[in-house]
Every structure is written in structure tokens, then in C-alpha cells.
Amino acid sequence: MIDPAFTRFSALLALQPRNEVCLLLSGYKDALRAGRIEAVPEAGWEFSITYLDAQGQEKTETHNEEFVLLTDKSARWISTQQLAARHLIMANTGTLTTTEERLNNNVDDLRALARMRRDALNASTVTEPEKSAPKSGRKKRKQIKKTTSSAKADNQK
To answer: Which domain of life is it from (predicted)?
Structure first.
């Protein structure tokens, strides 16, 4: 029996855009526990990765290197996490964008992105506060209008 192909965890992450990595890292151990990912640590090796966290901020972390089996199950999990991470960052940073290529290749869901945009717009709509009456005890200033005769007198000075 031949095992499926494998890769190093660092190589797998290096292939992903920086804005699609945060959930792969944060959910990796849960995916191992659930059997969505099968991997074994590589003795004595670590790697550092710089990616965008859920708030869209650059972050660098060090992780233990692992050999990851490349299976249909792991590919589905990785793809799901990538898209969810991308959407999470877009929603948190208000940078909802896509490309025609991503839409045509079914990488992005236009309806989901449109819903996220609508939600973001609704969340950012601020109603104007009602104007309150002046506080008691305060005098309101009156604007003094110059009359025609006083304006002429000013001009003659």
C-alpha cells in the first residue's frame, strides 16, 4: 500500500496568500484531533511564518515543522479555512473585494460577499443624535444684524 503524498507544514502554508492563513494556524490542532488533517512532527525543526491575523494585522509566529498528508479530506479543510479566513479579515477590516477570476473559479461566492458588504454598511451607519434643548442656566447668544443705516455709518468711517 502506498501512502498519499505529503508535504511540510511550512511549505503548505507558504503556498497560501497571507490573508488566508490565520484560521489554518488557529484551527490546526482541532483539525488534527478531528482527523481532518493527518500529520507527524519533524524532529528538531521549526519555521516562522508572517501572515495577517483576523484583524488584518501582520503577525509572525514560530511553529514546529510537521509532515502533512495530502488527502481529499485535508484539501477540503484547508480550502474551507482559507476562504473563511479571507472573509473574516475582509469583514473585520471593511475591505470587501474580489476579482472576476475568483468568482468564475467559484473561489468567492458573490452572494456571500454582497451579504457581508450589506452587513458592514448597516453596521457602520450611524444615526445622528437628536439635538437637545440648551441646558438651563445658560444664555443663548443672539446674532446682531446690522441695519442698513448702521452699515452705511460703518462704511463712511
So the answer is: Bacteria
**Residue closest to 96 by CA, chosen among 84, 86, 81, 105:** 86
Q: What is the DSSP letter of 20?
A: G
- Closest to 35 (Cα-Cα) out of 80, 71, 84: 71
Are 115 and 75 in contact, with CB atoms under 8 Å apart?
no
SS3 17: coil
> For residue 72, what are the domain limits?
6-123
For 35-93, how does the pLDDT look when each residue is reduced to its tens digit (9 = 90+)? Answer: 999 999 999 999 999 999 999 999 999 999 999 999 999 999 999 999 999 989 988 88
Cell of 47: 519555521
How many structural domains are present in the chain? 1
Of 51, 127, 116, 126, residue with least CA distance to 82 = 51
Domain membership of residue 129 (yes or no) is: no
